Amino acid sequence: MSLFDRKSAGRHAPAELVPTVEDLADVRAHFGGKPGRNAVVMTMGALHEGHATLIRAARERVGADGFVVVTVFVNPLQFGAGEDLDRYPRTLDADLELAFANGASAVFAPSADEVYPGGRPQVRITAGPMGELLEGASRPGHFDGVLTVVAKLLHLTQPDLAFFGQKDAQQLAVIRRMAKDLNFPVEIVGVPTVREADGLALSSRNRYLSDRERHTALALSRALFAARDRLAAQEALRARAVSLPGAQGRAENRAEALSRLGEARAAADAHAVAQAAEGGGAEAVRAAARTVLDEAARAEPPLVLDYLALVDPADFTEVEDGHRGEAILALAARVGTTRLIDNIPLTFGATQGAAS
Q1: For residue 192, which of 44, 328, 5 has the smallest C-alpha distance?
Q2: pLDDT class for 12, splitting at 50, 70, 90?
Q3: Of 338, 340, 229, which Cα lies nearest the Cα of 288?
Q4: Which of 148, 184, 189 minimizes the C-alpha distance to 41?
Q5: DSSP class of residue 2?
Q6: Can you give the three-state secondary structure of 269-296, one letter per residue?
Q7: Could you tell me which residues come within 8 angstroms of residue 15 by beta carbon, excluding any fewer than 6 positions away?
Q8: Per the residue annotation, which of 12, 30, 48, 51 is the catalytic one?
Protein backbone atom coordinates (compact mmCIF):
# COMPACT_ATOMS: atom_id res chain seq x y z
CA MET A 1 0.00 0.00 0.00
CA SER A 2 1.37 3.43 -0.90
CA LEU A 3 2.02 6.31 1.49
CA PHE A 4 -1.14 8.01 0.30
CA ASP A 5 -3.24 4.87 0.61
CA ARG A 6 -1.97 4.52 4.16
CA LYS A 7 -2.00 8.10 5.35
CA SER A 8 -3.70 10.51 3.02
CA ALA A 9 -6.03 8.93 0.52
CA GLY A 10 -7.93 11.65 -1.22
CA ARG A 11 -5.79 14.40 0.30
CA HIS A 12 -4.58 17.24 -1.87
CA ALA A 13 -2.05 18.58 0.64
CA PRO A 14 1.55 17.42 1.18
CA ALA A 15 2.29 14.53 3.49
CA GLU A 16 3.65 15.67 6.84
CA LEU A 17 6.71 13.45 6.61
CA VAL A 18 8.29 11.24 3.93
CA PRO A 19 10.60 8.81 5.76
CA THR A 20 11.51 6.23 3.13
CA VAL A 21 12.68 6.00 -0.47
CA GLU A 22 9.47 4.13 -1.32
CA ASP A 23 7.39 6.94 0.18
CA LEU A 24 9.42 9.49 -1.75
CA ALA A 25 8.54 7.71 -5.00
CA ASP A 26 4.86 7.80 -3.99
CA VAL A 27 5.09 11.53 -3.26
CA ARG A 28 6.65 12.25 -6.62
CA ALA A 29 3.96 10.24 -8.42
CA HIS A 30 1.16 11.92 -6.47
CA PHE A 31 2.35 15.52 -6.28
CA GLY A 32 5.10 15.74 -8.88
CA GLY A 33 5.11 19.01 -10.80
CA LYS A 34 5.18 19.56 -14.50
CA PRO A 35 8.43 19.06 -16.46
CA GLY A 36 10.85 21.80 -15.47
CA ARG A 37 8.87 22.50 -12.29
CA ASN A 38 10.51 20.10 -9.82
CA ALA A 39 12.92 21.50 -7.21
CA VAL A 40 14.88 20.21 -4.24
CA VAL A 41 16.34 22.01 -1.24
CA MET A 42 18.85 19.80 0.59
CA THR A 43 19.41 20.42 4.29
CA MET A 44 20.74 18.72 7.40
CA GLY A 45 17.82 20.01 9.44
CA ALA A 46 17.83 22.56 12.26
CA LEU A 47 16.15 24.83 9.73
CA HIS A 48 16.30 28.60 10.07
CA GLU A 49 15.51 31.66 7.98
CA GLY A 50 18.38 30.90 5.62
CA HIS A 51 16.74 27.59 4.73
CA ALA A 52 13.36 29.29 4.52
CA THR A 53 14.82 31.66 1.95
CA LEU A 54 15.98 28.70 -0.13
CA ILE A 55 12.55 27.09 0.03
CA ARG A 56 10.81 30.33 -0.93
CA ALA A 57 13.23 30.81 -3.82
CA ALA A 58 12.48 27.28 -5.05
CA ARG A 59 8.73 27.82 -4.77
CA GLU A 60 8.92 31.13 -6.63
CA ARG A 61 10.95 29.53 -9.40
CA VAL A 62 8.69 26.49 -9.98
CA GLY A 63 5.41 28.30 -9.41
CA ALA A 64 2.32 27.39 -7.44
CA ASP A 65 1.81 24.15 -9.33
CA GLY A 66 5.44 23.03 -9.08
CA PHE A 67 6.89 20.45 -6.72
CA VAL A 68 9.38 21.42 -3.98
CA VAL A 69 10.87 18.68 -1.84
CA VAL A 70 13.02 19.56 1.17
CA THR A 71 15.42 16.87 2.34
CA VAL A 72 16.39 16.66 6.02
CA PHE A 73 19.30 14.31 6.53
CA VAL A 74 22.35 14.61 8.78
CA ASN A 75 24.88 12.98 6.49
CA PRO A 76 27.51 11.02 8.44
CA LEU A 77 29.87 10.88 5.45
CA GLN A 78 30.72 14.57 5.66
CA PHE A 79 31.73 14.58 9.33
CA GLY A 80 35.35 13.87 10.11
CA ALA A 81 36.94 12.43 13.22
CA GLY A 82 36.25 14.62 16.23
CA GLU A 83 33.56 16.65 14.46
CA ASP A 84 30.08 17.28 15.79
CA LEU A 85 27.91 14.57 14.19
CA ASP A 86 26.34 13.53 17.50
CA ARG A 87 26.12 17.14 18.63
CA TYR A 88 24.46 18.37 15.45
CA PRO A 89 20.96 19.62 16.36
CA ARG A 90 17.93 17.54 15.39
CA THR A 91 14.67 19.55 15.39
CA LEU A 92 12.44 17.65 12.98
CA ASP A 93 9.05 18.90 14.26
CA ALA A 94 10.14 22.52 13.94
CA ASP A 95 11.75 21.74 10.58
CA LEU A 96 8.47 20.40 9.19
CA GLU A 97 6.61 23.48 10.35
CA LEU A 98 9.11 25.85 8.77
CA ALA A 99 9.35 23.90 5.53
CA PHE A 100 5.61 23.76 4.89
CA ALA A 101 5.09 27.37 5.99
CA ASN A 102 7.53 28.49 3.31
CA GLY A 103 6.25 26.47 0.37
CA ALA A 104 7.56 22.90 0.59
CA SER A 105 5.43 20.26 -1.09
CA ALA A 106 7.02 17.43 0.89
CA VAL A 107 9.83 16.79 3.37
CA PHE A 108 12.03 13.73 2.83
CA ALA A 109 13.61 12.90 6.21
CA PRO A 110 15.16 9.43 5.97
CA SER A 111 17.30 7.59 8.50
CA ALA A 112 20.96 6.81 7.83
CA ASP A 113 20.03 3.16 7.27
CA GLU A 114 17.48 4.24 4.64
CA VAL A 115 20.01 6.32 2.71
CA TYR A 116 22.91 3.88 3.17
CA PRO A 117 21.19 0.48 3.58
CA GLY A 118 24.43 -1.45 3.22
CA GLY A 119 26.34 0.79 5.62
CA ARG A 120 28.75 3.44 4.47
CA PRO A 121 29.06 3.16 0.68
CA GLN A 122 32.24 1.71 -0.76
CA VAL A 123 31.89 3.73 -3.97
CA ARG A 124 31.89 7.50 -3.48
CA ILE A 125 32.30 10.65 -5.52
CA THR A 126 35.63 12.45 -5.13
CA ALA A 127 35.68 16.24 -5.17
CA GLY A 128 39.08 16.44 -6.88
CA PRO A 129 41.61 19.27 -6.45
CA MET A 130 39.02 21.88 -5.45
CA GLY A 131 37.88 19.62 -2.64
CA GLU A 132 41.35 19.63 -1.11
CA LEU A 133 41.52 23.42 -0.65
CA LEU A 134 40.31 25.58 2.27
CA GLU A 135 37.41 23.64 3.85
CA GLY A 136 38.75 20.48 2.26
CA ALA A 137 42.19 21.04 3.77
CA SER A 138 40.70 21.70 7.19
CA ARG A 139 38.24 18.81 6.92
CA PRO A 140 39.79 16.03 4.79
CA GLY A 141 37.20 13.99 2.94
CA HIS A 142 34.40 16.42 3.77
CA PHE A 143 33.49 17.29 0.19
CA ASP A 144 33.67 13.67 -0.92
CA GLY A 145 30.95 12.98 1.65
CA VAL A 146 28.95 16.01 0.53
CA LEU A 147 29.07 15.10 -3.16
CA THR A 148 28.22 11.46 -2.51
CA VAL A 149 25.02 12.29 -0.62
CA VAL A 150 24.09 15.13 -2.98
CA ALA A 151 24.47 12.82 -5.97
CA LYS A 152 22.34 10.18 -4.26
CA LEU A 153 19.63 12.67 -3.29
CA LEU A 154 19.59 14.10 -6.81
CA HIS A 155 18.94 10.61 -8.16
CA LEU A 156 16.20 9.97 -5.60
CA THR A 157 14.40 13.33 -5.90
CA GLN A 158 14.95 13.77 -9.68
CA PRO A 159 14.70 17.57 -9.67
CA ASP A 160 15.02 20.01 -12.51
CA LEU A 161 16.48 22.57 -10.11
CA ALA A 162 18.48 22.24 -6.88
CA PHE A 163 18.87 25.21 -4.54
CA PHE A 164 21.91 25.78 -2.29
CA GLY A 165 23.02 28.73 -0.19
CA GLN A 166 26.00 30.83 -1.18
CA LYS A 167 27.10 30.90 2.47
CA ASP A 168 28.65 27.50 1.78
CA ALA A 169 30.40 28.90 -1.29
CA GLN A 170 32.95 26.14 -1.75
CA GLN A 171 30.28 23.48 -1.35
CA LEU A 172 28.18 25.24 -3.98
CA ALA A 173 31.20 25.37 -6.31
CA VAL A 174 32.04 21.66 -6.03
CA ILE A 175 28.39 20.68 -6.49
CA ARG A 176 28.20 22.81 -9.63
CA ARG A 177 31.39 21.20 -10.89
CA MET A 178 30.05 17.71 -10.20
CA ALA A 179 26.80 18.44 -12.04
CA LYS A 180 28.75 19.78 -15.01
CA ASP A 181 31.47 17.14 -15.13
CA LEU A 182 29.12 14.18 -14.62
CA ASN A 183 26.27 15.51 -16.78
CA PHE A 184 23.60 15.65 -14.10
CA PRO A 185 20.38 16.92 -15.77
CA VAL A 186 19.78 19.57 -13.12
CA GLU A 187 20.33 23.31 -12.76
CA ILE A 188 22.23 24.22 -9.60
CA VAL A 189 20.87 27.50 -8.23
CA GLY A 190 22.82 29.58 -5.70
CA VAL A 191 20.88 31.78 -3.26
CA PRO A 192 22.58 34.75 -1.49
CA THR A 193 23.63 34.42 2.16
CA VAL A 194 21.03 35.41 4.73
CA ARG A 195 22.32 37.34 7.74
CA GLU A 196 20.99 38.14 11.15
CA ALA A 197 20.39 41.77 12.09
CA ASP A 198 23.90 42.09 13.55
CA GLY A 199 25.53 40.74 10.37
CA LEU A 200 26.29 37.19 11.50
CA ALA A 201 25.58 34.71 8.72
CA LEU A 202 22.70 32.43 9.65
CA SER A 203 23.90 28.97 10.67
CA SER A 204 22.56 26.14 12.78
CA ARG A 205 25.85 26.35 14.70
CA ASN A 206 25.15 29.91 15.91
CA ARG A 207 23.03 28.45 18.71
CA TYR A 208 26.20 27.06 20.30
CA LEU A 209 27.67 30.54 20.84
CA SER A 210 27.50 32.21 24.23
CA ASP A 211 26.79 35.96 24.28
CA ARG A 212 30.49 36.77 24.57
CA GLU A 213 31.43 34.29 21.87
CA ARG A 214 28.82 35.74 19.55
CA HIS A 215 30.24 39.22 20.08
CA THR A 216 33.65 37.94 19.00
CA ALA A 217 32.14 35.99 16.09
CA LEU A 218 30.75 39.19 14.59
CA ALA A 219 34.30 39.90 13.44
CA LEU A 220 33.76 37.45 10.58
CA SER A 221 31.14 39.56 8.86
CA ARG A 222 32.88 42.80 9.87
CA ALA A 223 36.05 41.60 8.19
CA LEU A 224 34.19 40.76 4.99
CA PHE A 225 32.38 44.09 4.96
CA ALA A 226 35.64 45.95 5.59
CA ALA A 227 37.17 44.20 2.58
CA ARG A 228 34.12 44.99 0.45
CA ASP A 229 34.26 48.65 1.48
CA ARG A 230 38.00 48.81 0.79
CA LEU A 231 37.43 47.46 -2.70
CA ALA A 232 34.59 49.92 -3.31
CA ALA A 233 36.79 52.83 -2.21
CA GLN A 234 39.62 51.55 -4.36
CA GLU A 235 37.39 51.28 -7.42
CA ALA A 236 35.91 54.73 -6.81
CA LEU A 237 39.35 56.32 -6.46
CA ARG A 238 40.54 54.60 -9.60
CA ALA A 239 37.54 55.87 -11.53
CA ARG A 240 38.09 59.44 -10.30
CA ALA A 241 41.81 59.30 -10.93
CA VAL A 242 41.53 58.18 -14.53
CA SER A 243 38.95 60.87 -15.20
CA LEU A 244 41.40 63.68 -14.33
CA PRO A 245 43.51 65.36 -17.04
CA GLY A 246 46.85 63.66 -17.54
CA ALA A 247 45.80 60.54 -15.69
CA GLN A 248 45.48 58.22 -18.66
CA GLY A 249 49.10 57.15 -18.71
CA ARG A 250 51.45 55.38 -16.39
CA ALA A 251 50.74 54.41 -12.78
CA GLU A 252 52.87 57.30 -11.54
CA ASN A 253 50.61 59.77 -13.36
CA ARG A 254 47.58 58.15 -11.76
CA ALA A 255 49.21 58.45 -8.35
CA GLU A 256 49.73 62.17 -8.94
CA ALA A 257 46.12 62.52 -10.05
CA LEU A 258 44.93 60.80 -6.89
CA SER A 259 47.05 63.08 -4.75
CA ARG A 260 45.48 66.09 -6.43
CA LEU A 261 42.09 64.94 -5.20
CA GLY A 262 43.13 66.37 -1.83
CA GLU A 263 41.46 63.63 0.20
CA ALA A 264 43.16 62.04 3.21
CA ARG A 265 42.53 58.51 2.00
CA ALA A 266 43.64 59.38 -1.53
CA ALA A 267 46.82 61.04 -0.27
CA ALA A 268 47.68 58.10 1.95
CA ASP A 269 46.86 55.45 -0.62
CA ALA A 270 47.77 57.27 -3.82
CA HIS A 271 50.54 55.03 -5.06
CA ALA A 272 48.92 51.80 -3.83
CA VAL A 273 45.61 52.58 -5.46
CA ALA A 274 47.27 53.74 -8.65
CA GLN A 275 49.12 50.45 -8.82
CA ALA A 276 45.77 48.76 -8.21
CA ALA A 277 44.44 50.57 -11.27
CA GLU A 278 47.14 48.77 -13.24
CA GLY A 279 46.63 45.53 -11.29
CA GLY A 280 43.71 44.59 -9.08
CA GLY A 281 44.39 45.55 -5.47
CA ALA A 282 43.64 42.06 -4.17
CA GLU A 283 46.24 42.29 -1.41
CA ALA A 284 44.77 45.56 -0.13
CA VAL A 285 41.38 43.86 0.12
CA ARG A 286 42.86 40.92 2.03
CA ALA A 287 44.67 43.35 4.34
CA ALA A 288 41.46 45.19 5.20
CA ALA A 289 39.84 41.95 6.34
CA ARG A 290 42.96 40.78 8.14
CA THR A 291 43.06 43.95 10.25
CA VAL A 292 39.62 43.21 11.68
CA LEU A 293 40.46 39.54 12.27
CA ASP A 294 43.74 40.38 14.00
CA GLU A 295 41.87 42.59 16.43
CA ALA A 296 39.34 39.83 17.12
CA ALA A 297 42.21 37.42 17.83
CA ARG A 298 43.01 39.59 20.85
CA ALA A 299 39.43 39.61 22.13
CA GLU A 300 38.15 37.54 25.03
CA PRO A 301 37.22 34.94 24.03
CA PRO A 302 39.52 35.14 21.01
CA LEU A 303 38.74 34.38 17.40
CA VAL A 304 41.09 31.65 16.12
CA LEU A 305 41.43 32.03 12.36
CA ASP A 306 41.54 28.90 10.24
CA TYR A 307 41.91 30.60 6.86
CA LEU A 308 41.31 33.84 4.99
CA ALA A 309 41.37 33.42 1.22
CA LEU A 310 40.50 35.53 -1.80
CA VAL A 311 39.71 33.00 -4.49
CA ASP A 312 38.49 32.50 -8.03
CA PRO A 313 34.94 31.09 -7.77
CA ALA A 314 35.63 28.70 -10.65
CA ASP A 315 38.28 26.63 -8.85
CA PHE A 316 38.86 28.25 -5.42
CA THR A 317 42.52 29.02 -6.10
CA GLU A 318 43.92 32.27 -4.72
CA VAL A 319 43.69 35.24 -7.07
CA GLU A 320 46.72 37.36 -7.82
CA ASP A 321 46.99 41.08 -7.30
CA GLY A 322 46.14 41.82 -10.93
CA HIS A 323 42.92 39.81 -10.87
CA ARG A 324 39.97 41.15 -12.83
CA GLY A 325 36.42 39.89 -12.53
CA GLU A 326 34.59 37.84 -9.93
CA ALA A 327 36.17 36.62 -6.69
CA ILE A 328 35.08 35.25 -3.34
CA LEU A 329 36.59 36.35 -0.06
CA ALA A 330 36.14 33.34 2.22
CA LEU A 331 37.11 32.71 5.82
CA ALA A 332 36.72 30.18 8.59
CA ALA A 333 37.40 30.61 12.29
CA ARG A 334 36.71 29.05 15.63
CA VAL A 335 35.24 30.88 18.61
CA GLY A 336 35.24 28.74 21.69
CA THR A 337 34.33 25.26 20.47
CA THR A 338 32.26 26.48 17.51
CA ARG A 339 33.67 26.63 14.00
CA LEU A 340 32.06 29.17 11.66
CA ILE A 341 32.48 30.00 7.97
CA ASP A 342 31.47 33.01 5.92
CA ASN A 343 32.21 34.62 2.59
CA ILE A 344 31.32 37.52 0.34
CA PRO A 345 31.37 37.83 -3.47
CA LEU A 346 33.48 40.66 -4.89
CA THR A 347 34.04 42.09 -8.35
CA PHE A 348 37.44 43.49 -9.28
CA GLY A 349 37.74 45.92 -12.13
CA ALA A 350 34.19 47.22 -12.09
CA THR A 351 35.59 50.49 -13.48
CA GLN A 352 37.72 48.73 -16.08
CA GLY A 353 35.74 50.33 -18.90
CA ALA A 354 36.37 53.81 -17.54
CA ALA A 355 40.08 53.11 -17.14
CA SER A 356 40.66 51.71 -20.58
Answers
A1: 328
A2: very low
A3: 229
A4: 189
A5: -
A6: HHHHHHHHHHCCCHHHHHHHHHHHHHHH
A7: 3, 4, 7, 8, 23, 27, 106
A8: 51
pLDDT value at 1 more than 50: no
Intra-chain end-to-end CA distance of the chain, in Å: 69
Sign of CA dihedral 304, 330, 174, 90: positive
pLDDT at 246: 56
- 251-302 per-position pLDDT tens digit: 556 556 656 655 545 445 545 544 444 445 899 999 999 999 999 999 999 9
Helix, coil or strand: residue 14: coil
Instruction: State residue 179's pLDDT score.
Output: 98
Which residues have CB under 8 Å from 237's CB, separation 6+? 258, 261, 265, 266, 269, 273
51 is catalytic: yes
Classify 79 as helix, strand or coil: coil
CA 198, 203, 204, 209 dihedral sign is negative
Contacting residues for 29 by C-beta, under 8 A, at least 6 apart? none
Q: Quick one: how far is CA 294 from the chain centroid?
A: 24
Residues with Cβ within 8 Å of 320's Cβ and at least 6 positions away in sequence, in order, are: 280, 282
Distance CA 317, CA 30 (A): 45
Q: Provide the CB-side half-sphere exposure for 76 (13 A, CA).
A: 11
Residues of the chain above pLDDT 90, percent: 69
Q: What span, in angstroms and rounded, lies between the C-alpha atoms of 277 and 279?
A: 5
Q: Closest Cα partner for 219 from 167, 282, 309, 297? A: 297
d(CA 90, CA 44): 9
| pTM of the predicted model as reported, rounded to 2 decimal places | 0.85
Q: Which of 198, 199, 197, 178 is nearest to 188 (CA)?
A: 178
CA distances to 235, 265, 276 from 251, rounded to whole Å, are 15, 17, 9
DSSP string, 109-171: ---HHHHSTTSS-SS-----GGGGSTHHHHSTTHHHHHHHHHHHHHHHH--SEEEEETTSHHH
The reported pLDDT for the residue numbered 353 is 41
Per-residue pLDDT tens digits for 41-51: 999 999 999 99
CB-based contact 228:347 (threshold 8 Å): no
